[in-house]
Each structure stands twice: as C-alpha cells, then as structure tokens.
Amino acid sequence: MSLSEPMRSRIATIIRENDVVLFMKGSRSMPQCGFSATVVNILDELLPEYRTVNVLSDPELRDGIKEFSSWPTIPQLYVRGEFVGGCDIVKELHATGELVKTLGLAQEEVPAPSIRVTQAAVAAFEAARESDADFVHIEIDPSYKYGLYFGPREAGDVEVQAGGLVFLLDPASARRAEGLSIDFVEGPSGGGFKLESPNEPAKVKELAPAALKEMMDRGEALELFDVRTDQERTIARINGARHLDADGQQYLERLDKGTRVVFHCHHGGRSRAAAEHYLAKGFRNVYNLQGGIDAWSSTVDPSVPRY
To answer: For 170, phi and psi rounded to 5 degrees?
Structure first.
C-alpha cells in the first residue's frame, strides 16, 4: 500500500521526538509476539526508559511503518532517528556488544565467567571438533536458552578456558554464564549436552486445560489473565479470567512476585510471549494455558464458543 503523507508525518514525528523508539506488537509491559518480547527484554537490560508504539492498535500504522522503513517485519527499532533493524539484527548487535555503542551507553569490560565442564563433555567436544581452528561457542539468550556451535574467533568474544578447552562467548552471553556447568549425558535416543546455570530464571510452565480446571475446582490460589483483544473477548471467555488491559496490567504488577499467574489467549502463542515477559520482570510462578481458550473449549467446557 502507498504510505499517506499524514501517516508518514506521524511516524517521522514519533521517531524525531524519541531517542529510542520501538515499533512493536503490543507494549513494553505486554508484548504480543515473541519477536517483540525478545527486543523488549534486550532493551530492558540496557535502558530504564524508551518509547514503544503498538502497531496492532492501528492497521494503517502497522503497514505504514513497514513502508516507511522499507522493512517487511515487526518489531523495528530506531535510535536517534536512525533505523537499526528488526529482532534478528538487534539480537546480533546485543550479542557482539555493538548495541551498547548504538545506544550511546558506556562500554563495560565483561569479565570471563567461571565455567565447569565434565570429562564426558570434554570428550564429546573433542570428538565433534573437525579443525584445531574451531572453538566451542556458547550462546545464552535473555530467556536462558542455550546454543553451542563450533567456529573461529569473532570480534568481541570473551574467552574462557575450562577442562583443557577454550570456550568463546559473546559479551551478552558471558554476563549470564557465571557458574555455568556443561555435561554430556546419554538418553534413550542418544547423547546430548546438558547446560545448567545457577542464574537461570524460572521458566514458563505449560498448563493443560484439564489441569487448570482441576486447580480452579479445588479453589487453589491463582490469577488467570486473558491477553486477547476486546473483540475476541466478546466472542468467548473463560469465567474468572481478568483482561490484561491497562487496568489488568496495573493489577498484575501489584501482585506478589510469587503469585501463581496463568496467561491464556486463543491458541497459546500470544499468552506465551506475555508469560515470558512477566518472568523477565521477576514473577516466579508463571503458567501458559496450553492450546489457549480453543483447547479449553474443546477439552473442558464446550459451552465456550470456538472461533
């Protein structure tokens, strides 16, 4: 579609008036897609304040920012009037430490973390390495999902020696890696590396609809939040679910961080992103309704309309 001049002017004004602005799905307090949540988590690590713009609130804006930036996907990050990129580019810049420079922040030297590697893991790494020029790279994202691969040194890598091997980490991963242990374990379908960190936060737990129904029937303490739109809520609702609108967000953020919190959407994707976001904000007992309200309707309460 052609970008109208009023929309072009609106976007340009937002970018001009904010040093850091993220065009995203949802808001900083409630991202509504995994890619937007990833960028929010990265920016939250580095900045106390920045502007977010919810493209889901305005279809013309959602299409317009893509035309304005000549970039086909959301989210999109701008810093001091310059387009930085989408989720993958922001992740890459963060991993290499370049995002700190882009944001104009002071570059801090990252100390080498302490890592423990078992003999079984050392033997597995040695068996898998094809060249002496290859090193084991360790990646740890903000949700503590781990990655391992062989490759040459890269700019900005932090070097760690453990078990007689050299490990390389990007600066962001190195900050999360203190106390990391790496083992190699055998299982029914073969062997694999097992990485564990004492810094790893609680993870979102998938909750089957039947299990949620049992909790509710027993009167167990929990808070159920619906992250869907107002329009979807007029079609179907789960009794007792609180809308995660502005009022719902304020209510949630006043809860004790140990409260059992369950999120749901239509099929489970948007609520998973919201759950991950609130984990990053310190909530420790977070669940995502597996399959969303659609699964609830088909397996627990058929009186709830499906759509």
So the answer is: -70, 160
How far is the first Cα of the chain from the last one, in angstroms, to the nearest whole number? 29
For 275-285, what is each residue's pLDDT tens digit? 989 988 889 89
* CA-based R_g, the chain, Å: 22
Catalytic site residue 33? no
**DSSP per-residue string spanning 235-247:** H---TTPEE-SHH
Strand 76-79, strand 158-162: pairing: unpaired
pLDDT digits (tens, 9 = 90+) for 195-247: 999 988 778 999 999 999 999 999 999 999 999 999 999 999 999 999 999 99
Residue with tokens 């990485």: 195
What is each CA distance from 215 to 48, 81, 222, 258, 281, in whole angstroms? 37, 50, 8, 17, 25
Q: Using the Cα atoms of residue 168, residue 173, residue 177 and residue 181 in order, give the sign of their dihedral.
A: negative
Residue 127 · residue 121 · CB < 8 Å: no
Helix (H, G, I), strand (E, B) or coil at 130: coil
Catalytic residue among 265, 274, 275, 293: 265
Instruction: Give the Cα-Cα-Cα angle 79, 21, 86 (nearest 5 degrees).
Output: 75
Which stretches within 18-78 are classed as H helix? Answer: 34-46, 59-69
Q: Are 272 and 264 in contact (CB under 8 A)?
A: no
Per DSSP, the chain holds a count of helices (H) and strands (E) of 12, 16
The model's pTM? 0.54
